[in-house]
Design goal:
- 34% of the residues lie in helices and 24% in strands.
- Among the domains are: 8-29 and 95-172, Ku70, Chain: A, Domain 2 (Beta Barrel); 190-199 and 244-273.
- It is built from six helices and nine strands.
- A seven-stranded mixed beta barrel has the order 1-2-6-9-8-7-5. Strands 3-4 form a two-stranded antiparallel ribbon.
- Residues 254-266 have a biased composition (Basic and acidic residues).
């Protein structure tokens, strides 16, 4: 990708076929507004300093190392070289272990997406894999060492290239049972269910990421701009609290509003057409009446 530095370069292998590939960051937060920590008294930027928890003295970077707490306040020292030595050996190869249906992986396992492109040599092999997966409607599961960690990667065709999404390990994903265990068992049916279905049907659409703006980021930008220009800060709009507390009443009100909004253009168009018809009839009738009065009557012969 022109103008962008690859985050990782290596090979992708399926069967006895391999191709050089590169990974590029697909999502980034670098364009977000960031703030620095400032000393209120001086207006100067504050630097971060690591302090010894017992002596309260600053610890320079060269004196810092890693440690694992075995008891309260007791640590074993871990040298960075020891950490590096535990990283599994890797020949920089995305070794495809299996091809699976795209829907087999629950989205909760998705971590971070990267664009996967051919790196100079091996474009034909890359294209063969991409098109074969697209035709077969499958994704690929591969493993390799990325950024000092063994990672499982889900690879899917995407446009001219592919997307490689790192996956969370099973022990990293919390069980949904614990999150939902406090939920009461409720069965919705009858009018309440029909109203909910109606509201859903009137709000159906398609996902277009370009239509979803980062309102928080936009508000920050507006606030910073106002501060720079010395203008009054924008005031937050009051939040309208929903009046009905009853769920069924709220569903009825929502469904009614949506139906009114849905029918309004139709009624407006019908009224407009009727109005145009009346205007045309009025314009057509007037000349006819005038000409009938002015025209000489023929005598019966």
């Amino acid at each position: 990708m022109a103008g962008q530095r690859a985050q990782w370069k290596g090979f992708i292998k399926f069967g006895e076929v391999s191709a050089g590939v590169a990974l590029y960051t697909a999502a980034s937060t670098s364009d977000r507004i960031t703030f620095n920590t400032i000393n209120k008294a001086t207006g100067n930027r504050v630097n971060r300093v690591f302090i010894d928890s017992e002596t309260d003295e600053a610890v320079p970077k060269e004196a810092q190392t890693k440690g694992f707490e075995i008891e309260n306040g007791q640590y074993i020292i871990i040298d960075p070289d020891e950490v590096a030595a535990t990283i599994p050996e890797s020949n920089k190869t995305l070794e495809i272990e299996a091809f699976i249906p795209c829907s087999d992986v629950d989205d909760v396992y998705f971590d971070k997406p990267y664009y996967l492109t051919p790196d100079k040599m091996g474009s034909d092999a890359f294209a063969a894999l991409r098109d074969g997966m697209r035709k077969s409607k499958v994704a690929a599961i591969a493993r390799t060492v990325l950024f000092r960690r063994m990672r499982t990667v889900l690879i899917r065709p995407h446009g001219k290239g592919m997307v490689a999404t790192t996956l969370n390990f099973d022990y990293e994903v919390r069980s949904s049972k614990k999150a939902f265990e406090g939920m009461p068992k409720i069965k919705i049916e009858g009018e309440m269910l029909e109203l909910a279905k109606h509201i859903i049907s009137t709000k159906k659409g398609e996902f277009d990421p370009a239509t979803f703006d980062d309102r928080y980021e936009a508000a920050l930008e507006e606030m910073v701009k106002a501060k720079i220009e010395g203008k009054a800060l924008p005031k937050r709009k009051k939040v309208e609290i929903s009046k009905p507390n009853d769920l069924l009443a709220a569903l009825r009100e929502s469904a009614g509003r949506m139906k009114a909004a849905e029918d309004k253009p139709k009624r407006t168009a019908a009224n407009a057409n009727a109005g145009v018809g009346r205007q045309r009839a009025a314009r057509g009738a007037a000349p006819k009446t005038a000409s009938s009065k002015a025209a000489p009557q023929r005598k019966a012969g």
